[in-house]
Structures are given as structure tokens and as C-alpha cells.
């Protein structure tokens, strides 16, 4: 019986997450952890300049455009200069929640929360090359369902206290270690991550760390926030538990 079969038969009877699970397996080459930026809710005014500063401060794999409470026309207007900045720097531009907006502006993909649609639907709307991510909270079952439905990445969290959004779920660092042992689908760690606490999440095997306030609220500016995160992601405490390419 596979791990997924155990969950499908009776999730309540699934094995408890073993913190040492990944250590039972040998080297599993995987790319180094990368940075995934999430926008603040306010992306007007001087935000394009702030985004450019962040992107120019160090490698960033993806930027998620996350706004609330505005109509799609206004969201598209705000997104367009940010999309251009990302395109110039070869940074993936991901829209939070809204498949229709992602299609309208030609974004690289969409991130779906639970209840915001399924990966198969997003694939139909956005096409075969779209990058589709799914929020899975602290649930291995949700992650396996998302991967089976065609998600390009799964997101686990929150790992720490966060003021960016209300959270009901707390993920353990054993979760990305387990996931990267059993699946090739990349995982994103999110929730309260900053330069001071990112090391154990990176060491556990997260493929990406997603951050917002650690960059946009950094006292020395977003560029300093990105540089601090990269220092934390590459320090001795962030050394992978398994060899990485």
C-alpha cells in the first residue's frame, strides 16, 4: 500500500509525521533553496521602485502579486509595471488566487488557496506552461491531492507567527523534509519566515521560502531585506540535511 493509499483509506489513521523520516534515506539531489517574494497589499505609489530594489539585491525566483478588495481593472493596472520589472529580470510573476486576472495580464502562473479553484481548472484556463501553486497548510494529504491534480508546487505553512495574514495552521520543519523525500514536486515554506529563522526551514529541505514583511518592512529597505535573507539561507545553520545539486 502506498503512502497516498493510507491517507485515502482513512486520514485519521495515517502515520504521525516522524521528524527523522528523511534521515532514513540517502542523498537526494535537489536544487538549492530559492527566494519567493510576496507583495504587500499596497502595490501602488513607489512600490515599483521598491520591487526593483528588492529584485536587484539578490536572486529571486518568483514574485507573487497579492492584492485584496479592488476590482480586476485596478488590479491589472497595478500589476502591469510590476510584471514588466519581473520580465526584465527573469523572475516568475505569480498572481494570488485569481486565474482570470492571471490570464488577462499574461502572468506566469497563479497561486491557489484552498477553495480558490483546482490545479486542473487553472491548467485549462492558463495553459500547459503556467506555474500553478496550491496552499496546503500543514497537510500532507492536501499536498498529495494537489500534486496528483497537477500542481507545479505545494505551499506549507505557517511555520512561524506572522502578521501578513491570519493563520489557523502551524507547520513543522519535519514537513518539508518528509515531502522532499517522497515527492519531486517542489515545496514552498511560508509564514513568518525571516532572515533570523529561515535556516532550519532551508535545512529541512524547502525548495523555496516565501516572504513578505521580512523584505518590505525591513528597516534598511527591501534590498537589505533580500540580502539578509540570502545570508540566512546560505549560512552554516541552513546546510541541507541531504546533499543538493
Structure notes:
The protein has 245 residues and is of the alpha/beta class. It has one domain (32-238): Aldolase class I (TIM Barrel), CATH 3.20.20. The protein has helices at 3-9, 47-56, 72-88, 99-105, 119-126, 140-148, 174-182, 198-204, 213-216, 222-234, and strands spanning 34-38, 62-65, 92-96, 109-112, 131-135, 153-157, 187-190, 208-211. An eight-stranded parallel beta barrel has the order 1-2-3-4-5-6-7-8, surrounded by seven helices. The longest helix has 17 residues, at 72-88. The chain starts with a helix and ends in an 11-residue tail after the last helix.
Topology pattern, helix = H, strand = E: HEHEHEHEHEHEHEHEHH
Give the count of structural domains.
Answer: 1
What characterizes the major β-sheet? 8 strands, parallel, barrel
Number of strands: 8
Coarse structural class: alpha/beta
Rough outline = globular
State the CATH architecture. Answer: Alpha-Beta Barrel
Q: Helix coverage percent of residues? A: 25-40%
Highest-level CATH class? Alpha Beta
* Uncertain segments: 1-7, 9-14
By CATH, the superfamily comes out as: Aldolase class I
**Please, what is the average pLDDT?**
89
The radius of gyration is: 18 Å
What percent strand?
5-15%
Which sequence of strands runs across the widest sheet?
Answer: 1-2-3-4-5-6-7-8
GO molecular function: magnesium ion binding; thiamine-phosphate diphosphorylase activity
EC number: 2.5.1.3
Keywords: Magnesium, Metal-binding, Thiamine biosynthesis, Transferase
Protein name: Thiamine-phosphate synthase
